[in-house]
Design brief:
48% helix
């Protein structure tokens, strides 16, 4: 992780874990430490999150999920990982400063869940984003089922999550999953311009506005994601689908 600060109070966090900025345990820990630094920095006014290379974030490290799906310990460890990623997204959402996801390339699975925990999403028109977990026999477990419904409504969320669809940035902006869709080369300049606009406003007012906006929510849906993640990781079909994905072949 690379955190850069500008004199204007804008911080930029770059996800840099080649080849696709996938998230594993070490990345969760590093991101959590960085968010704590941002929260403790009284001079930070806005946080931009971007990905190095061609991807924003391709989600959870799929290879970590391989193992005996019928083994309870393995399923419990992966449920713990989902809980940790869910906690990280909660930390990001509750950051005391406005947060902006600058999305070029792919933001899939946990990568999109991370972006949905940001206050703003600026996405490239040709970027591919979505929650494809059902194609692996899983569900989004880091708050994706909850935040996507809040952002785009139940009907659209059912369409994207149940079918595991990846959509282009232009469609994401049209349905409200992203705030703006721009050419890929303009994603980061546009995110920077938005950050400058926000940095000029009262930080106390922005913090209180965020707190009030996010108050109306139940914890039940987040807990249900973890329970479902544990059960699905114990299912043999999930193990077959993950193995097929890693072998780049259709599941049997």
């Amino acid at each position: 992780m690379l955190l850069e600060r500008k004199p204007s109070g804008i911080a930029t966090l770059t996800l840099d874990h080649p080849p696709a900025n996938a998230i594993g345990g070490p990345q969760i820990e590093a991101l959590s430490r960085t968010l704590a630094q941002v929260a403790a920095d009284g001079d930070c006014r806005v946080l931009i999150i971007r990905g190095a290379g061609r991807f924003f974030c391709a989600g959870a490290d799929i290879r970590m999920m391989q193992g005996n799906a019928s083994t309870g310990g393995h399923a419990d460890r992966l449920a713990d990982f989902a809980r940790a990623l869910q906690g990280l997204c909660g930390e990001l959402e509750s950051a005391p400063v406005p947060t902006i996801a600058a999305i070029r390339g792919s933001a899939a699975g946990g990568g999109l869940e991370l972006a949905m925990a940001c206050d703003f999403r600026i996405v490239g028109r040709d970027a591919l984003i979505g929650l494809p977990e059902t194609k692996l026999g899983l569900i989004p477990g880091a708050g994706g089922t909850q935040r996507m419904v809040e952002l785009i409504g139940r009907a659209q969320a059912l369409d994207l999550i149940l079918r595991g669809r990846l959509i282009a940035g232009a469609e994401a902006a049209r349905i409200g999953l992203a705030h703006e869709s721009v050419p890929a080369e303009e994603v980061e300049p546009r995110a920077s311009a938005l950050a400058e606009e926000l940095a000029a406003l009262s930080p106390d007012a922005l913090r209180e506005a965020k707190r009030c906006i996010y108050l109306a929510r139940s914890d039940a849906g987040f807990a249900a994601e973890i329970d479902a993640t544990r059960r699905l990781h114990r299912h043999p079909d999930t193990g077959r689908r993950i193995a097929a994905f890693l072998a780049a072949r259709p599941p049997k």
